[in-house]
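[Q] Does anyone have a clean structure-token version of this?
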Amino acid sequence: MVSTTPATHAPAAADPGPLRPPWSARALIAAGLLVAAVAVTWVTFWWIGLSPASLAAGLDDTARLLRRMWPPDLPGAGDVAWMIAETLLIAVAGTGLAALASVPLAFTAARDHCGPRWLRPAARVVVVLTRAVPTLAFAILFVRIFGLGPLAGALAVAVHSVGMIAKLLADAVEETDPVPAEAARACGAGEVQVAVSTVLPRVFPALTGIVLYRLDINIRASAVLGVVGAGGIGVALQTSLGSLNYHRAAGIICVIVVLVLLLELLSVAVRRRTVRQSTGRQSTGRHLTVRRTVRQSTGRRTVRHPGAGRSAGDTTGTAALPAGRAPHDVGWDRGRVLRVAGAVATAVVFLVSLWSLNPDPGRLSGAWPNLRGVLTGMWPPAFSGDLLMAVLESLLMALGAAAVGAACGLVLALLTAVTTTPWRALSVAVRVLLVVVRGIPDLVYALLFVAALGLGPFAGFLALWISSTALAAKFFADSLEQLDPLPHEALTSVGARRWQAFAAGIWPPFVPSFTGNGLFVADLALRESVVLGIAGAGGVGYLMQESIATLRYDTTAAIVIAIAVVVYAIETLARVARRHLL
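[A] Here you go.
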């Protein structure tokens, strides 16, 4: 019998992995972040005048508004179908345009870029800037340039999506094996040829997953772009609230929630199927690798390159096939036909979505004077004290709401996670509630609170509080369920009470995940705080919308720069904290 076990060598030194500070230093970092969160929360409460009495009065006003909205008045089936179709087409068109623009941008921003040196930092600036500015902020600009309608919404979705898709794709490009690319360069291939022939095929599965995930996010964002006139179902929602038709507004909100929940279920099913197929292909590839190893160990010659033909001892030709490809897979089998049909259907849907935007040459040529006026009016940026105070208000709203939301989310996560919930039925009920709460966009919460409480940061804080709580609860519950259950079970088996088992067996290993996920929630809340200001819920968003309406583009440029700097700073802080804690 021929053994396939590799020869025994001297044991190599263990890889120490990434260096992390000792536990005492990690505890100090976590404690410092906790103290900072408490301090920011206290300053936020003082800034917006939040107290138990004002909170109770605000919730009472909101409850009266909800009673006025009941029962919901659903639009006609034809109107609903058209609004949903327009929303979906905006998301598909924007995501497709972003994917096309992100591929060259990602290759340029990758660390192994071999083109002109100045292109890489310029590409990274574009990635950071487009990711930092929210979709709704871009929508305001494009409505001014291209006018009302879905074209402005699709372009806003595309520009903001470029930042995320290009960043994740650049990471995938940097992680690929550099040997094929170096071999192609040694044969005289240019950089474009190297990227298309050796790198892009390897990162295409990752690109597909990223685009699908971004499409899910963009559909949610497209549902509220109509608030600023950028098309979709949000136009009907803004019209209903503006005319005080609260019953119709409630019906439209119900349609948005159902649409978002159905799409979330669909995206989860698609991602699971994709992961399962990818796992199956990897398993097949490992099986074929073992078969080739056995042939090599028994003395059979294998093919070294595709053009060398079959070896003398290999009658099947399996070794000449790519990893993960069996002999019977060659040709147009059912799987290949379905993949090609899916690619063709995707291209057709993308082209239909572009056609629905009505990008006629006359309209596009008429937008150039507006674009030139916006760009020339943005320089030099006009920073002011009012702008800095508005940015500070958005920052306080976001960080305060994220801190309170993390505390509330932790309680809900303990009721949701399988390892900590006291009753299984309670866990299911809380999970369903969190899915419904996450299905409502933040801007919808802000519009409701502004209608109930009036303009100001109080409404924005409540909207961010709700969304941050639901998001943090989901992240924390997932982290709790991924922990090793043995310490908790051991403590419970020796008679420890529930809180004692949690404090000693669950909380210490959960602290790094709690801190990292909490910072990520704060990062998302800061981006959303800019959006809520557009609805009048405080912060810098209202100032941005006003500057565009009054043609003060120098102030708009200063706001965009300030938003990008603050968001990037919070993102960097979160990344550094997670690296030291996780």
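[Q] Thanks! Anything notable?
[A] Residues 1-21, 282-324 have pLDDT under 50 and may be disordered.
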